[in-house]
Design brief:
CATH topology of chain A: Transcription Regulator spoIIAA
Helix content of chain B: 25-40%
Largest interface: A-B, 24 and 25 residues
Strand order of the largest sheet of chain A: 1-2-4-6-7
Radius of gyration of chain B: 17 Å
CATH class of chain B: Alpha Beta
Distance between the termini of chain A: 29 Å
Oligomer: heterodimer
Largest sheet of chain B: 5 strands, antiparallel
Structural class of chain B: alpha+beta
Strand content of chain B: 25-35%
Shape of chain B: globular
Number of strands of chain B: 5
Strand order of the largest sheet of chain B: 1-2-3-5-4
CATH superfamily of chain B: Histidine kinase-like ATPase, C-terminal domain
Number of helices of chain A: 4
Number of helices of chain B: 3
Number of domains of chain B: 1
Structural class of chain A: alpha/beta
CATH topology of chain B: Heat Shock Protein 90
Helix content of chain A: 25-40%
Radius of gyration of chain A: 13 Å
Number of strands of chain A: 7
CATH architecture of chain B: 2-Layer Sandwich
Shape of chain A: globular
Strand content of chain A: 15-25%
Largest sheet of chain A: 5 strands, mixed
């Protein structure tokens, strides 16, 4: 499982480096996300642009990651591929998550400017 | 008029493999190596991954020694798929049950599972299930022309 993060003054940007979130990595995704969302700026944006496939276990792990974020902090997604977007819309999870077209629009041009 | 006939492309794939995670992944790779439009490919990947995972987890209950037979036929309009296994039958009425989650709930109550069958129902046409002797036979097609609209 490969996740990395970078902090700006207002937001933490977590980048998913795997190109698949599936049953094989669902549990470590959830565990690593718990650590990365426990501290740092209150606004969390997850860059999903490298992920080109998720299955139902992967979707479950992303929902679990959202649920374990401490109160008062956001957990937003950015840069969903067309396949990933399809899975979110068919399960209506696109109505639950805040989803941005890409990281640039989520962070208003850059992590330093994010508000 | 032979010369006016539309070029017709048919690719078929017949695979038999054991119900372990590695064999399932290899089978998926072989299907995705077929000549498919990219939208059709991503839908086929989602559907087949869910169907095969369900067989491994539920029909064979994680026993890696079950047999799975997969037949995939690609025509001009669709990808026709048939999957056979010798595991536990599907629950009664699963095929027609609409697995819709209530998402108007507290965050803590959001579902973390049960999405797989919903995806299969939403992304396939002519989904059918038969129990024949000791085998499960699941058949469906994925419309290539409709892949953009899902």
């Amino acid at each position: 499982m490969q996740l990395s993060f970078q902090d700006g003054p207002q937001a933490r940007l977590i980048t998913v480096d795997n190109n698949r979130i599936d049953a094989a990595i669902a549990i470590s995704f959830k565990d690593t996300m718990r650590e990365m969302t426990a501290d740092g700026p209150d606004r969390i944006v997850v860059d999903m642009s490298r992920v080109d496939f998720i299955d139902s276990s992967g979707l479950g792990a992303i929902v679990a990651a959202l649920k374990q974020v401490p109160d008062g902090r956001s957990f937003e997604l950015a840069g969903l591929s067309s396949t990933v977007k399809k899975v979110f819309s068919l399960t209506r999870m696109d109505t639950v998550f805040t989803i941005h077209a890409d990281v640039a629009s989520a962070l208003d041009g850059g992590l330093a400017n994010a508000s | 008029m032979h010369s006016a006939a539309k070029p017709h492309k048919t690719d078929t794939l017949e695979l038999k493999f054991p119900s372990d995670a590695m064999s399932v992944r290899q089978a998926l790779h072989q299907v995705l190596a077929l000549d498919l439009p990219s939208d059709g490919k991503s839908v086929a990947e989602i559907v087949l991954a869910e169907v095969l995972n369900n067989i491994v987890e539920h029909a064979y209950q994680e026993r890696p020694t079950g047999l799975i037979q997969l037949s995939v036929k690609r025509t001009d309009q669709a990808i026709d798929v048939q999957v056979l296994d010798e595991g536990v039958p599907l629950p009664d009425g699963l095929l027609d049950r609409k697995v819709e989650h209530d998402l108007d709930c507290l965050m803590d109550d959001l579902p973390e599972g049960g999405f797989g069958w919903l995806l299969v129902q939403e992304l396939t046409d002519n989904l059918s299930y038969k129990r024949v002797d000791q085998s499960n036979c699941l058949a469906f097609s994925i419309a290539i022309s409709n892949c953009d609209t899902a």
